[in-house]
Please model this.
Amino acid sequence: MRRTTGDAPTVHLWSLSEDVVVDQHAGSDSLVLTSRWGQERLDRPAPVVREVLRRMELGPVLLANALNGSEDLYVVMLPTLSKLSHLVVRTLGVDDLMGPLLSVLPLSPAAPFVLVRQPRERRVRLPRHVALSVPESGIGCVLESVDSPHRVVLHRPEAAWVATMLAWPTTPDAASKALPLPPQVTEDIIGYLCAAGMVTTVDDPGGEPGAEG
Model:
């Protein structure tokens, strides 16, 4: 394997699930998002919320670009998106024009997604109930679990390399050293898999996985 991402930084993209329709009536104080789970109403959303959700309906966006570096990212946008996490697809990419690494899709009306970086020396692995399959398109791979409210689509080989490493107990540090990827790419892929419920910590040297807190 050779390094395919160079030193390009990772990028974190946000979009709405394909079934979500954003209803923006001119002059209305409310915004209605309709999905397979019904409707979500946002009363008097800030103009920046309306604009970012409009863009997310069209495809993945980089929030920092959509907000032009505004402090609204932390004050307004992220709290709103946290409430709508069951409607949001999170995508990890690399700034190399070769397409996204992976996407995490919500499968439940209760699908929280919180990125928490694992300590570099903490042993982690894929739980036994995580299934890896190839979609009908034959492109990429899919990770699913009966215990997770998400589906993870691995778009590029780099993401599959990391997922394969996690078939055995390992640490983010060891995985980074073993793979021909920049450490940031490997660690961010592990972080997304953890947030999607596809990774568990290993409690003891015997390799028995335990639930992550």
Observations:
- The longest strand covers residues 10-16.
- The helical segments are 47-58, 63-66, 72-83, 157-165, 172-178, 183-195.
- The radius of gyration is 18 Å.
